[in-house]
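Class, discuss our next protein.
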Amino acid sequence: MTAAFLNRVGRRLLGAVVFGAALGIWEAWARSEPSFLFPPVTAVLERAWQVWPTTDFLTSVAASLERLAAGYALGAGIGIAAGLLMGSLRAARRTLEPLVEFLRAVPPVAIVPAVIVVLGLGNGMRIAVIAFAVCFPVLVNTVEGVRAVAPETRDTAAMLHLGLAETIFRIYLPAALPSIVAGLRVALSIGVIMVVISEFVGASDGIGHYILFQQSQFNVPEMYGGILFLGLLGYVLNRLFLLVEDHLLSWHFRAAGEPTR
């Protein structure tokens, strides 16, 4: 127990040291070659300390988080539902797979102009773009998780004359849950990326709009501060997701003999 705890603390300290070293390299490089376009990290952090607690900045953060939550929930819901259907029924998989693979090959950034034409420049466009990007990692992982269910388990469900809905919710969904959660974690980072990209176009608030506005005004420390905040936000969201994952999949980690994170 003590050894495992010390090992975990050591890994986290090592991560903090690596992050600090990266900031130190940034600081040294910026001071060795002074440039208006590449300020030292200390200047960026000083402006961040002043800007991040302000009402305007927090309002932008809240707007981005609202869009992320809506788009992530919509995309994940569609991905899980379609993935369960395609994984459970071979006919559904053969019918939908060409369309899914076609859409999955389209970069989410490429659909932004088309979605603007259809939905305009409001929140609907941004939520749709986020949902489109989030959907496919979740869908693919859900399909693969269902298809990985052992044939013996499928045969047992057939012998018990379980209906399709009962089979999905009592057998396929629990069995595929680790794979689904892995897809949800990947989709979360993609969702953050698409929030920012969608806010680069026609937005009046949001972190993406903040970064682009500061760049247009040549407020370089503020621009880097916005980028730094995005990295910290992504880290915090990932840690929160891991906490939920540890709780949701505790049975899976125990069965696999893996420690929680």
User: Anything to note?
Assistant: The chain has a mean pLDDT of 88. Residues 164-199 form the longest helix (36 residues). The domain at 44-256 is CATH 1.10.3720.10 (MetI-like fold).
